[in-house]
Specification:
316 residues; Pantoate--beta-alanine Ligase, Chain: A,domain 2; 2 domains; three-stranded antiparallel β-sheet; 12 helices; globular; binds adenosine monophosphate
Length: 316
């Protein structure tokens, strides 16, 4: 980037408390008021260690909103493994630089005591049966902890009632975390939280590995081996497009030939509810719409990915 551009780049305001955040949002909402359209605030919740996947969420939110807030908070409650929490990358200065280039207005980087002043919440959000399937089965408590912080972040960044005009409020989440997205949509609906949940497609490397803050823990050899996930998903996508039976078992065998990668699950589910679909067999041709969910471990690193499956009749 040229020095000129760097000089013109507006640094976002970094705030650490709920009160500072509410005040900063209100000031920017007032500055954005015009006679002819509604003012909007967008929130992108993250755990930092930002990569192009996060940047895509931020770019979408930037386009669609007058005021853009990005939160950075590594939420201990959603880690069921203390070592995983301890080694999670924390790169605030580099993140703020990325967010300056992406045009964020406010970075909310609270401490754990700001988010949980009374320690672990007494009143909990229960992610229900869906929260203990797939990722929830391998990471007990993960989704309850995730929902606990998301509801708080949604409340922290909600345009304050003191704003002099009604404000449209949107929050942005990646399709990479498909189960998280379904649960957040349900929570917002079940609890009447006044926010529009917006989802953004998965960003991958050129070779097809879904970007994740955890990818930096992969050796080059492991990153190469992890591409089996994308290869396997594409085989199934093509079968679905050709209206063939999906027969996931033979695709799972591809993983067995990749010793660095240990498959956890490979499932075809309803994209809206994540209920398992009965297409996982040799005989039944795939019709309709599905979502393929995959999780695998590469060394100590757990990777998740997914791909929409749809049947496109020939010539359509
Ligand atoms: P995290 O910092 O991992 O909590 O992720 C913050 C947000 O970025 C979540 O909504 C993720 O789904 C989203 N995200 C993470 N990786 C990607 C990716 N590769 N493509 C799109 N969105 C992503």
């Amino acid at each position: 980037m040229s020095t000129d551009l760097q000089m013109n780049q507006k640094q976002p305001l970094v705030v650490n408390t709920a009160a500072e955040l509410a005040a900063a949002i209100e000031v920017r909402v007032i500055a954005a008021i015009t006679a002819d359209r509604q003012v909007s605030v967008g929130l992108v919740p993250t755990m930092g260690a930002l990569h192009s996947g996060h940047e895509s969420l931020v770019a979408t939110a930037r386009e669609q909103n007058d005021v853009l807030v990005v939160s950075i908070f590594v939420n201990e409650l959603q880690f069921n493994d203390a070592a995983d929490y301890a080694r999670y990358p924390r790169t605030l200065d580099a993140d703020v630089e990325i967010l300056a280039r992406a045009g964020a207005d406010i970075v909310f980087a609270p401490s754990a005591t700001e988010v949980y002043p009374d320690g672990r919440p007494l009143v909990k959000i229960d992610s229900g049966a869906l929260g203990s399937k797939f990722e929830g089965a391998s990471r007990p408590g993960h989704f309850d902890g995730m929902l606990a912080v998301v509801v708080k972040l949604l409340n922290f960044a909600m345009p304050p009632a003191s704003c002099p005009v009604a404000v449209k409020y949107r929050a942005y989440f990646g399709q990479k975390d498909a189960q998280q997205l379904v649960l957040i949509n349900r929570m917002v609906k079940d609890l009447n939280i006044p926010v529009d949940v917006c989802s953004v497609p998965i960003i991958r490397t050129e070779q097809g590995l879904a970007l994740s803050s955890r990818n930096q823990f992969l050796t080059p050899e492991q990153a190469e081996a992890a591409l089996v996930i994308y290869r396997a998903m594409n085989i199934i996508r093509v079968r679905a497009e050709k209206h063939e039976p999906l027969f996931l078992e033979d695709v799972a065998e591809i993983f067995a030939r990749e010793p660095l990668v240990e498959l956890d699950y490979l499932e075809v589910v309803d994209p809206n509810t994540l209920a398992e679909l009965a297409f996982n067999c040799r005989e039944t041709p795939f019709t309709g719409q599905g979502l393929l969910l995959v999780a695998a471990k590469v060394g100590e690193v757990r990777l998740i990915d997914n791909m929409p499956l749809g049947y496109h009749p020939a010539g359509a």
